[in-house]
# Entry
Amino acid sequence: MAGWTAFPGAKMLGTLVLEGFGDFSPHVNLADEASAEGALWSVFMQGGDLMCWSWSFSHSDADPSDAGLWWLEEAELTMGERSRIGFAQVGVEQDVHVAPLLVPLCQCFYESLRRLGEVDLRALQFNARNLLPDRRPDDRPYIPQSGWFRMSQGPRTNAFIAFDDGFLQGKSEDEFVQAVREWSGIGVFEFGPLAPALPEHAIEDHIPWPPETALSPAQVGLPVGMPEWTPSSAAYALAWVIEVARRDGLAAPNSAIRITRLD
# Structure
């Protein structure tokens, strides 16, 4: 997987990779490899441009700060890899606040897949590399409260959030779960307590990262009851967990977190 190379004088950059897992039936015109190659990149790029979330970072004299929430580096369908549907790799500034951009990133990814075929999304995995810890002037969360999802018509669903073994960075498990519950909105998303992470729910490593950034699955994860199973709902649940993990400036520069539908 190719990455983007910064132009001279650019800020140091971080990388985010979103992966989708489940069932995907491509439209007939994507049934062969030649037709599928480049399809997700093109649609994801245009979707981000349309919603003013990003633009394709293809000009060597462009400034990353003008690229919206992210700039697209790579996106591919991976239909031949078991249940892995595809991925999108985007670039961000190292000091980005990750949680607020996760919902639009997941929504753009899912809508791009839907343009290309029938999608049954069962899991999402979010990978981050080369990020700086968040530095906050206060403890105020940087993502909205859950009022949008209070209007959901359901049905409610259960999911499991797994992460890498360095994700909590030594934080108390009880305090971590309590903080996620308090911040995310009472009665809408129901988190925890921590439970053993089964192999089928654990993070997976499909990406050829440098060996020094390799991650191992944690032995525990976080069950969550959700008002609905949608990309925005799944991303919102992940966003709160990431927000709590990163808010005190102790977060690791490399991490992975995954949400899997259980119902």
